[in-house]
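[Meeting: bench + compute handoff]

Bench side (C.D.) handed over the final construct sequence. Compute side (W.E.) agreed to return the predicted structure before the next meeting so the bench team could plan truncations. Sequence as handed over:
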Amino acid sequence: MRIERARGTRDFLPEEMKKRRIMEERMREIAERWGYEEIRTPTFELAELFTLKSGEAILEEMYEFKDKGGRHLALRPELTAPVIRMYVNELKMAPKPTKVYYFGNCFRYEEPQRARYREFWQFGAEIIGSDRPEAQAEIIALAFYCLKSLGIKAELHVGHVGLIRERLRAANVGNDEINRVMRLIDKGEREAVIDFLNEIGTKNELIDDLICLVDLKGRDALKEARERNIVGSDSDALKELEMLLEILDYYDVLYTLNLGIARGLDYYTGMVFEIYEVGGRLGAQNQICGGGSYQLAALFGGDDTPSTGFAFGFDRLAEIFLPETMHLESMKVVVIPIRTKNGDRDVMKESVKIASKLREFFPTYIDVMSRSLSAQLSYAAAIHASFAVLVGKNELKEGKVTLRNLDTGEQEKMSVEECVERIKAF
């Protein structure tokens, strides 16, 4: 009986893994150059960690279970909450700001669709201890340059939830109602926002101001908001956003100001941003990154610590990481022992030594099936190797190898050292 893989999961074949490792390595390199250090958290956590952050409703979307000790656990549905839990438990005495990055798999029980799976991967980064404009700009710029390292074209939208919250507070909307309105805006349910505000008795002109505010986009959005008196010049959120945008310009980051970006959870405190794929290859599921400023540490038993971070949907990035930007033409080399019927242990011994030397520089293969010369060359062609290094009795006598270019068929005897330099120069 053939066993199928679980629904919503995938098997990654060698070429796909090669691509994903290249992506991961480039993003890690960028994060570490910017002073971020890698961390890793457990694959499962106490379920309470996620219900405290997102409410009991998230249990419907999680793989949650009781272990043999009766503890209520869950496979992590995202990585921000585990990172802040780790900070509270292990890193709260570390110098501020604490700058970390992470890469790991997450799990959500939802209907699988294109670029949306039940097991998926996130790459993210957090600055813990600061949500000032300088920290916010650095986080956005880090995400921007991660994408640039992958050659992925995308559109960055930047907003600030403080502007929406200030407008709602000015309309005497209570905190619980503000959170509900923010959730509706986050879902794009414009008519539901209007109906709810009418239901709780909000004045029509204030509703109009709010709808106008969340519709504002582009470089002149703040200017227009001021001219319409939707945002006052004494607004703290406005001052913070203006400074953030000024610093983003220093980084040469291209962005669209979008005042309609919202978050449905009240621990988001200021800047928010989203990045969308350009080109339509992901269809409707085109958001590839989200981030913002938040305060979660107090919820998990720590001090009230400001933080700023982002997470990439790594699987969606993998969908749009094109072959022409992958540089997968890594130089494959095959060492071919030319055996006689008697086996020639000396040939095999020297071939292993030569393969070990070549592996210091290139992906190198050696026959482990005692095949003939022609069969080994056929295998080299099948795996798209660039060079074959032939080792036989004649080569052993001369202290050389025969290097064959598998594209042109040209070959020449030379030392192993010369062989390395020739392949490097190809």
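W.E. noted at the follow-up: The domain at 333-425 is CATH 3.40.50.800 (Rossmann fold). C.D. will use this when planning the next construct.
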